[in-house]
Specification:
Layout lengths: L15 H12 L4 E3 L4 H6 L7 E2 L6 H7 L4 E2 L5 E4 L2 E4 L2 H16 L1 H11 L21 H15 L8 H8 L3 H12 L3 H19 L4 H7 L5 H12 L3 H11 L5 H6 L3
Parallel strand pairs: 1-5, 2-3
Antiparallel strand pairs: 4-5
Length: about 260
Amino acid sequence: MYRSRALARPGDPTPEPVLAALRDAHARGIPVAALCAGAFILAEAGLLAGRRAVTHWALAPTLAGRHPSVRVEETPLYVEDDGVWTSAGVASGIDLCLHLVREAHGSEAAAAIARSMVTGPFRTGDHAQYLDRPTPAADRTAETLAAVRERALGRLHEALDVSTLARWAGMSPRSFARHFAAATGTTPHKWLLRHRLDEARKLLERTDHPVPEVARRAGFASEVTFRQHFAAYVGTSPRAYRAAATAAEPPPNPSDSVRNGS
């Protein structure tokens, strides 16, 4: 493992063996990811030439200036281009890592890690890094909103709406929606929809419930509505997604039976 100097700065030269290892990994089809200023190293290795990339918004102009062939974007939390991933700041790096876990091991594994880290289980890369007019929230407001989100995640099957979430927070719906957007970068409605779709994906991957039951357990009022949102979100139907997820499951490892005592 390469360990940089303690005072290394973005753009400082990277040892050639490190750059060569990154190029070799990408050439072999291995996904390569950089967190925050790590995008400078991928650019130095030539892996970002002609590709989309992000870094911390304060470093984006520097990255674009030093590597004009890189298509630097300033707002997304993380992006992927041809197997090369880059993310914005520290929290965005966590979001990217959870996304990669989710893609490789499923939403249940990513959610378990997120709970252990006391962080939200899912933010898409197209969330903005920052708001044009950020609204600083008091610590107690942030804690209240976090508690509401945690409570909602446990009740996605219920008929939740903004009024219900606002009541839990002890706020008016309008004030709640404003604070929620400031804290998460999205609206309560879109947040609920994304997590319901995430729950539906988990149910399709992990259970054999019929699609109407999956829709009900994920909190959708009707199967038709669920199918429409799922197709728009995932790009395929629930049945096709389940078939692909089932086909992609690895065979059981005999050693697991030994460890589990079966």
